[in-house]
Amino acid sequence: MNELSLAVVGLDFPNADRSNRRFEMALCVPGEPVHLVREPRNKADPRAVAVVSCRAIQLGYLTAERCGWIGARIGSGEAFEALFQDHGRHAAVIRVRFGGGTVTLPAPRPTVEDEPFDWGA
Question: Which residue intervals define the domain HIRAN in the entry (predicted)?
Fold first, then answer.
């Protein structure tokens, strides 16, 4: 699997610099780059991978289930590209591509405003 979408969790936790992760997520635009940063000295999980916006503000972390695998790929020096994909209620979503090439973003999810109103209901 060279390209996948990943959840970014921990949006409600404050950053050490007191920046607000949810506010930063609201500023993110689909397709803008994000950075993945391994945190081997993280006391809660030495496999943690932080997700940082292009404005250098931490958005949160990859889920614990994905950190080991993604962190190992990053640690091995494998080429990758990561983009912000979507805003979620409980998590941000990023898109990552390993092994070179360009990341492709899936079509955006329809919003309530995009769905036609059924006046006959």
Answer: 25-76
Sign of CA dihedral 95, 8, 49, 36: positive
Which of 47, 44, 89 is CA-nearest to residue 65? Answer: 47
* Element of type H or E holding 83: strand 80-86
Domain span at 81 = 3-104
pTM for this entry: 0.86
pLDDT band at residue 22, thresholds of 50, 70 and 90?
A: very high
Sign of the alpha-carbon torsion through 27, 29, 30, 34: negative
**121 belongs to a structural domain:** no
